[in-house]
Amino acid sequence: MSDPTVDVRTASAADVAAVLALWAAARSANASTPDTPQSLERLLATDAAALLVAERDGVIVGALVAAWDGWRGGMYRLAVDPAHRRRGIALALVRAGEARLKACGAPRITALVAHEDADAVALWAAAGYAHDRTIARFVRSL
């Protein structure tokens, strides 16, 4: 069930503070990369359409990064304000991200999800994403 009072749109520089506040309120325990105004401004400068927001009555209640590297699509940092969950906002953001990445030419999309985040795992499964148990993710901080 989607919420008809929510509008999903591409974010702008004016949305940076609101997205950072949302991410602070809905931050996953597994999110280890710091969220800073500079990181979001860099994202918008590099790929202006990558950051999607869900807005209700002028307030940002959800956000998703739908990034395209020229080869594959990736979805990151999906978050919905805890007071607005279970209304279809996350799925609306995912579908908007898919449409954006398909328009870019992405043949495949990868979503990063913490194994132990049962709500997130359930959302991505309900959205039609398969759990890839064959690929390991290796990370190195710079």
What is the strand and helix layout of this fold?
Elements: E1 6-10, H1 16-26, H2 37-46, E2 51-56, E3 59-68, E4 73-80, H3 89-104, E5 109-111, H4 118-126
Model description:
This protein is an alpha+beta fold. The protein has a single domain, classed as Aminopeptidase, CATH 3.40.630. It is 32% helix and 23% strand. The protein has 4 helices and 5 strands, in the order βααβββαβα. A 5-stranded mixed β-sheet has the order 1-2-3-4-5. It is globular and about 40 Å long. The mean pLDDT is 90.
Helix content: 25-40%
Determine the structural class based on helices, strands and strand pairing. Answer: alpha+beta
Order of SSEs, N→C? EHHEEEHEH
Here the CATH topology equals: Aminopeptidase
Say which CATH homologous superfamily is assigned.
Gcn5-related N-acetyltransferase (GNAT)
Q: What shape does the CA trace take? A: globular
Distance between the termini: 41 Å
CATH architecture: 3-Layer(aba) Sandwich
Helical segment count:
4
Mean pLDDT: 90
- What spatial order of strands do you see in the largest sheet? 1-2-3-4-5
- Can you summarize the main beta sheet? 5 strands, mixed
Rg, Cα atoms, Å: 14 Å
What percent strand?
Answer: 15-25%
